[in-house]
Write a structure and sequence with these properties.
Elements (H helix, E strand, L loop, with lengths): L14 H38 L19 H25 L8 H18 L22 H30 L3 H15 L7 H26 L1
Helix pairs in contact: 1-2, 1-6, 2-3, 3-4, 4-5, 5-6
């Protein structure tokens, strides 16, 4: 999932220009670092909650359902922080990729992913299937407006990230980077697979793992090749 680098331009001797370039590089590095942290932060928060929230079962309950109940604010905050990290990554990509295929589309798609995560946090899904404890052990009869908004936001976010992975696949192919092209293509394929109703919560967790692994690897790759 690494990003093929563009050869750096010759150094400029003018002191002011060099100072500005260094400042911009440091700022870009911080944005990419924030983007790299989004995935680990989301994963750590979700895993801890899976094992500590009474009644939660990943085989039956999607990660988003952690946003419900008295402790739901933890997952809501996690969504928002991860979304802000993705927005930082989008800005870092925009500053770092100045040439080549996808330089304009990639930051836009990653930015949409970030906005979608924030919206998915602010609009929580409905309690159902026995979680939180005390909820009837069945699917919700009718989704609330915020439940619909949550599902739409998540769908848009992951679709946008799949497009980003496809764009990066094409970029890698054009630069003859075979392994990164294969890895990006595989990530895109996982993200666009239709949801299986019987295993939806597991599939959502896998999609989240793939998505945040992708963002972390891309951010670290760009930081290394700057």
């Amino acid at each position: 999932m690494t990003v093929p680098a563009v050869p750096a331009a010759p150094a400029v001797s003018t002191t002011g220009v060099v100072s500005t370039a260094r400042s911009t590089a440091r700022s870009s590095g911080r944005l990419l670092a924030a983007g790299a942290l989004a995935g680990p932060v989301f994963a750590a928060s979700a895993v801890i909650q899976m094992f500590t929230r009474t009644g939660f079962d990943i085989a039956r309950h999607p990660i988003s359902q952690l946003s419900t109940g008295g402790l739901g604010w933890i997952q809501i905050t996690t969504f928002v922080l991860a979304g802000l990290g993705a927005l930082a990554l989008a800005a870092g990509i925009g500053r770092t990729l100045r040439e080549g295929y996808g330089r304009r589309v990639l930051p836009v798609c990653v930015g949409i992913f970030g906005v979608g995560l924030i919206a998915a946090g602010l609009f929580p899904m409905d309690p159902e299937n026995g979680f939180p404890v005390g909820t009837p052990d069945r699917p919700v009869a009718e989704m609330s407006w915020h439940g619909v908004a949550h599902s739409a936001s998540a769908a848009i976010a992951f679709t946008a990230l799949a497009v980003a992975a496809i764009v990066l696949t094409v970029r890698c192919v054009r630069r003859h980077a075979v392994l990164p092209a294969v890895l990006n293509g595989a990530a895109a394929l996982v993200l666009v697979l239709p949801m299986a109703p019987d295993h939806m919560s597991i599939q959502i967790a896998v999609n989240g793992l793939v998505a945040f692994t992708w963002t972390t690897v891309v951010a670290m790759s760009l930081r290394r090749t700057r």
